[in-house]
Specification:
The structure is a single chain. The chain has helices at residues 17-27, 29-50, 52-57, 72-85, 88-120, 122-137, 144-151, 155-178, 183-191, 196-232, 239-248, 252-291. By secondary structure, it is mainly α. The protein has 2 domains: 20-54; 73-291, MetI-like (MetI-like fold). The longest helix is centred in the C-terminal third of the chain and has 40 residues, at 252-291. It is flat.
Length: 292
């Protein structure tokens, strides 16, 4: 009599150290590679500023004078001194942030309704599109001397410069957003006797929100440029003034502190808007499915 023996299932081997490292790497590959690239960039920069590579390769052409390029460690020390020892950067950052806030609110208050209204009505769109294209092709920075001549060099002029640079992406994205609104929804709303304000509030504004947020994200970078350029013309304090004065006195580390401050502020604001934009993108298809 033959007895059949059921084969035992192979015992699952617990993951080893290499398996855990490999799984962790692939789970966070994007972040790990980004951090490594950033660290490598800082290392190369530090070597140029400190003269490491010139000494290592015996090449004087790789030696950079401190007046031309400051090492990251020197910039970090200058930033610590300016933020937490003397505290002078907070005064500059406060005024520049206030100017940016006013310029942002003014650009949104004018640019978003202007873009949506121009895109809503066909005749108005035909009339405004050439002017909008011309404004987009015009470097707004070239108009700053005229702004100073017309308005002066006070707070209003600096806010106007920031708003002028930020308003174009908002108008363009608002104009483009109207072309993505489903005409059948507008027709349906009109058939039920909805007024223009109801149509804007319940159909146009929700459908155009992702495009408007994308325009805001693009305008943030322009607003940062407006801060630096606008404050050069007569501002008492501000990051742009600090960068200009440090550059004239060859304080390279202070220039980098101001530039990196603007970069970090721009990245943080852009990331906040991008996260809001992602939530709106997830929300928008649900509205379309329910409406259909």
């Amino acid at each position: 009599m033959t007895v059949l023996v059921k084969p035992q299932a192979a015992e699952k081997r617990p993951p080893g150290v290499l398996d855990v490292i490999r799984d962790t790497y692939f789970a966070y590959e994007r972040g790990i590679l980004g951090v490594l690239a950033f660290v490598l960039f800082l290392l190369i920069w530090e070597g140029l500023g400190r003269g490491w590579w010139a000494d290592l390769f015996h090449a004087e052409s790789l030696r950079v004078k401190p007046i031309m390029l400051s090492a990251p460690s020197t910039i970090a020390a200058a930033a610590w001194h300016m933020y937490f020892v003397t505290g002078e950067m907070w005064r500059h950052l406060g005024l520049s942030g206030f100017e940016f806030l006013l310029g942002f609110l003014a650009s949104c208050f004018i640019g978003i309704p202007a873009g949506l209204i121009c895109g809503r009505y066909r005749d108005l769109a035909y009339a405004a599109e050439p002017l909008l294209n011309a404004l987009n092709a015009t470097p707004q920075v070239a108009l700053i001397p005229l702004v100073v001549l017309w308005i002066g060099t006070g707070l209003g002029a600096r806010v106007f410069i920031i708003a002028l640079l930020m308003i174009v992406p908002l108008i363009i994205n608002g104009f483009a957003a109207m072309r993505t609104v489903e005409p059948k929804y507008l027709t349906l709303a009109k058939s039920f006797g909805a007024g223009e304000w109801t149509v804007f509030r319940t159909i146009i504004l929700p459908a155009s929100t992702p495009f408007l947020l994308a325009g805001i994200r693009l305008s943030i970078g322009r607003g940062m440029i407006g801060i630096v350029v606008g404050e050069i013309y007569g501002a008492p304090v501000g990051i742009g003034v600090m960068i200009n004065q440090a550059g004239q006195t060859f304080q390279t580390a202070k220039v980098f502190v101001g530039v990196l401050t603007i970069v970090i502020c721009g990245l943080v604001l852009s990331e906040v808007v991008r996260r809001i934009e992602r939530r709106v993108e997830r929300w928008r298809p649900q509205i379309q499915e329910q409406s259909s």
